[in-house]
Amino acid sequence: KADYSFTDDILVYASYSTGFKTPGASPDCFSPVACFLPVAEENLDSIEVGLRTQFADGLATFNATYFYNDYQDLQISGTLPTGGFTRVNAGEARIQGVEIEAQLRPAQGFTIYGNLSWLDAEYRSLNFAQAGLLTGSTTAAAGPTCGGAVPGLPAYEQQIIDCALGLTLKNAPEWKGLIGFNYTFPVGGGEVFLGADGAWEDDSFGLVANPPGSLIEPGFRLDARIGWRSDSDRWKVTLWGKNLTDREYWRATTGANQVFAAPPLTFGVDVGFKFE
Asked: Over the stretch 165-182, which tens digit does the pLDDT of each residue have?
């Protein structure tokens, strides 16, 4: 790892690391041929480059990070289209992305902040057995993801591999972002604080095979809070609301008929007291 500081306010860094995940066995035993299949060791090479800055005596900050992860024998755990929960190797994969965050304090007690991330995750190499597991395809029939592949034809195996290489890694939205603010001002022996956050997340899939029933669509969500704390910081009361737009979406899924809903519009009050 190397760090280079040009001034007190700017830092550029770069790092390289490598690691592994221990081998094991799949817990899937839904069929004799799939029972406790061995899972090979996963290896990772990771590169990260970043920028950290601070301006105007700390009133403004800007940070940016790029990362590149190269996986060999990627281990994936999840629910397959057949309904079995398993752990398998998924060949070679690449996950790279950029993360940006900024903060600005334009006035006393007022802070604006935000972040944005971009993610590119893809499989780079798969054999037929791995592709078949990811897509739910076998030598007897094409799975739900690879409709149109015809078993028995010479090109069938390559069709399944090409189909699997086009899948999106599960729980890997391409874009995510957030913007918000905090504001505080003195009131009666303490201070009032209020703020809000608006977050947006791109669609992603909850299952490795990417079937339509596993699409997760968070979209835009809005949270807010307002409260009062004493000057001694012993008392604090907060009124908060989450998902104020009452966005309905699935946070996770194990199939078209098995989903986990995100919390709906929710309000609450927190009261805190510190003992000294």
From this structure: 999 998 999 999 999 999
How far are the Cα atoms of 83, 112, 145, 160, 231 from residue 142, in angstroms, in the given order?
A: 16, 51, 8, 8, 67
Helix (H, G, I), strand (E, B), or coil: what is residue 66?
strand
Cβ-Cβ contacts under 8 Å for 1 (sequence gap 6 or more): 13, 14, 15, 16
Q: Rounded to an integer, what distance in angstroms lies between the CA atom of residue 18 and that of residue 46? A: 6
| Residue in the block written with tokens 């860094």 | 13
φ and ψ at residue 58, rounded to 5 degrees = 85, 5
Pairwise CA distance, residues 223 & 241, whole Å: 6
H/E stretch holding 128 reads helix 128-135
Q: Output the DSSP codes for 68-121.
A: EEEEES-EEEEE-TTS-EEEEE--EEEEEEEEEEEEEEEETTEEEEEEEEEEEE
Q: pTM of whole model > 0.85?
A: no
Spatial distance between the Cα atoms of 119 and 220, rounded to a whole number of angstroms:
18
Report d(CA 254, CA 207) in Å as an integer.
7
Between CA 11 and CA 31 the distance in angstroms is: 55
d(CA 73, CA 88): 9
